[in-house]
Design goal:
Layout (H helix, E strand, L loop, with lengths): L1 H4 L11 H12 L5 H13 L1 H49 L9 H16 L5 H22 L4 H36 L1
The structure holds zinc ion (ZN).
C-alpha cells in the first residue's frame, strides 16, 4: 500500500484517474477498504474530473437505489417476522387441539405451517417440524403424566402423533416446493 501511495518512489503503480473511477463505486457503496477510501479522497482534492464523477455517482445510484434496497429489506424483514409469528401461533394452536376432537384440523393446519416455514425460513425450514415434534411430544407426555401418573405408555404414545405432525409439516413444505417448481417452469415457457 505504501508503495502505491508514493508515486515518487518509482517502484509502485501510478494511481491514474481510471483507477480512481474504478474505486469510486466501491467507496460510495461503503464496501471499499480504508486504504482505498483514503486514496480516492486524496485524489479528489487535486482532480476536479474525478470529483465530479464522485458526486454524480452519489446522485444516480446511492440515493434512490439504496433507498429501494432498504425498503425491500425492511419488507422482507417484516414478512419474516410475520411468518415466524404465524408458525408459532399455528404450532401452539395445533398442539393444543391434540386433546380434543379438533385435532383433525391439524391435517390442514400442519401442512400450512410447513408452507409458511418454507417461505419464511427458506433453507432452515426443518427447524419447524423438529420444534413441532418436540413441543407436541412434551405437551402430550406432560398431559398424560398429569392425568394418569407416570406409566411407560406415556413415554411412547406421544411419539406417534408427534411424528404425524412433523410429517404433515414436511408434507406442506414438499407441496410448496413442488408448486414453486411448477410455477417457475410455467414462467420459463
Ligand atoms: Zn482524477
Amino acid at each position: 500500500v505504501v508503495e502505491v501511495h508514493t508515486e515518487k518512489g518509482g517502484v509502485g503503480l501510478k494511481i491514474t484517474c481510471d483507477v480512481i473511477l474504478d474505486l469510486i463505486p466501491l467507496v460510495k457503496d461503503g464496501v471499499a477498504s480504508e486504504d482505498s477510501n483514503a486514496l480516492v479522497l486524496e485524489h479528489l482534492e487535486s482532480c476536479d474530473n474525478c470529483k465530479e464523477e464522485f458526486y454524480d455517482y452519489k446522485a444516480v445510484t446511492t440515493a434512490e437505489e439504496l433507498d429501494d434496497k432498504k425498503i425491500i429489506t425492511q419488507i422482507k424483514k417484516s414478512l419474516f417476522i410475520i411468518g415466524l409469528a404465524l408458525i408459532a401461533i399455528g404450532a401452539f394452536t395445533g398442539i393444543a387441539l391434540t386433546n380434543s376432537m379438533g385435532m383433525f384440523y391439524n391435517l390442514i393446519l400442519m401442512p400450512l405451517i410447513g408452507a409458511i416455514s418454507y417461505k419464511a425460513l427458506k433453507r432452515n425450514w426443518y427447524f419447524t417440524p423438529i420444534s413441532i415434534f418436540v413441543l407436541s411430544y412434551v405437551w402430550m407426555f406432560v398431559g398424560a403424566v398429569i392425568e394418569g401418573g407416570f406409566i411407560v405408555e406415556a413415554l411412547y404414545y406421544p411419539v406417534y402423533i408427534s411424528v404425524l405432525y412433523a410429517f404433515l409439516v414436511v408434507l406442506g413444505v414438499g407441496i410448496t416446493v413442488l408448486l414453486n417448481f411448477a410455477f417457475r417452469k410455467e414462467c420459463k415457457l
